[in-house]
Amino acid sequence: MSQAVPSPAAKPRARITAVTSGKGGVGKTFVAANLAAALARQGERVLVLDADLGLANLDVVLNLAARVTLHDVFTGRASLDEALQSAPGGFSVLLAGSGLVEYSRMTPEVRDKLLDVIAQVRPRFDHVLLDTGAGISDVVLFTVSLADEVLIVATPEPTSLTDAYATIKVLASTQAARPVRLLVNQTQRRSEGRAVLAQLQQVLDRFVNPTLPQPLKLALLGEVPLDAAVRESILRRQLLLESLPGSPAAIALAGAAAKLLTP
Amino acid sequence: MDPTAPAAPPESAGHTAGPAAALRLETALALLRQAGQAEPAGPPGSPAYLQMLIDQLVDLSSRDALTGLANRRTFELALAREVDRVARSGEPALLLMVDIDHFKRVNDSHGHAAGDLVIRAVAQALTDSVRPMDLAARIGGEEFAVLLPNCPAAFGPQVAARVRQRVARTEVALPPEGLRLSVTVSVGGAFAPQWVRSTPGIWLQRADQQLYRAKGEGRDRVCLEHAAVFDVSALERDMLLGGHPIQEPE
């Protein structure tokens, strides 16, 4: 996957991954941004789309000024090209901007505008990461429905686990079957991520899978250890992979990104 | 193509009825007669005649022969269309699964002819209790489905209750003594996930689960999936968190 720059003709459609969590504050945007940086480092053309229309914060994580935003594209004040920004990690971003509160409820208009943006960016990238909002709002569910695969970010905390489970359950019970992978953030022991996965799978097998036309099998994309380097990079508003690439968390994220390349 | 010309025998096809003589219409026409439909008007073989024949056959193959309701095939088409529409418009849509309670007993005690009458009466009650835009279908022996486009969540319980009550109030007169029989139905329902492209199979399954719940809770009742079905139950939470953290055997 690291040979020549892929041409649009060879790879016309980006693979779209929805990054979602259920609970907020588990590091979803942090994970999306650093996965994007890791993918970009491997020569992939990556876009992170801030789909948290109500409470966007990709700009904060990346220390970018949201000059031209999705909001401007939606209202026709700017073209998509004007809104696409380069982020420090060598990938592109489409920032939502805080003016999008009016789009935080689903309407046919929001739907059509988002579909239009996705259709336009798809041929231009290898990977599109949709950084969705937290919770299970209709905007989040709609955004996730646009993706080819779903990445659930969770921490081993009970509230995060429960919300991750609820999200997986809703997706499995209402949307067409797609691969769902799990990234466990802030693990404190080796293999804690695998244990979290097993726990989620066990409850899914018992309560959700019997009700589905085809059972859902979660896969583990990676586990990122609790690491002081993460806090440091966030406070500095830098990508972990840029500022502290040798840290355990950065190494884990790079490993997860490599797995993201193999669907 | 003179309609007054005598029909040519099949062997000499061609000079009077044109291509019509080469067509094998007998079975189609017999089916229409059996269903009580008039033979298409106009000269046999003319485009107008054939179009009408096709329309009649399409109608025939989309309906359930016993009840005249939409059949399973039509229902599945409509369901797929509705899933698509809801994904685009975000409009709420409700799917009800309706099953006659203890139908086997009706057949066993009163015979299959009585069973047919009951099925027809239930079909009529379904049609009478929903809007013209809704689609009532017979999708199995004693199983029906009603698809209600643009049905807000708040109206779901009312609509489903009306369907159930309407059937319960219906009396079926059985010949020859005019014995009056009434039946009840269990109703399960689920709303389509709005905005997202789901699948008809998932929707059907969710409504079906509610029907099983209604049966399990004693029949003659309505169970709708609440919007809060996505809540995590105490049981699920316990199982999710109870075993956590797990020590992995190394």
Explain what the structure shows.
The complex is a heterodimer of chains A (263) and B (250). Chain A is α/β, with parallel strands linked by helices. Chain A has eleven helices and eight strands. Chain A has an eight-stranded mixed beta sheet with strand order 3-4-2-5-1-6-7-8, sandwiched between helices. Chain A is globular and about 50 Å long. Chain B has 250 residues and is of the alpha+beta class. Chain B has a domain of 156 residues: Reverse transcriptase/Diguanylate cyclase domain (Alpha-Beta Plaits), CATH 3.30.70. In chain B, strands 2-3-1-6-7 form a five-stranded mixed beta sheet, sandwiched between helices. A two-stranded antiparallel sheet of chain B has the order 4-5. In chain B, helix 1 packs across helix 2. Chain B is globular. The chains are: A alpha/beta (263), B alpha+beta (250). Chains A and B meet through helix 6, helix 7 and helix 8 of A and helix 3, helix 7 and helix 8 of B.
Main features:
heterodimer, A: 263 residues, alpha/beta, Rossmann fold, eight-stranded mixed β-sheet, 8 strands, 41% helix, 17% strand, disordered N terminus, B: 250 residues, alpha+beta, Alpha-Beta Plaits, five-stranded mixed β-sheet, two-stranded antiparallel sheet, 8 helices, disordered C terminus
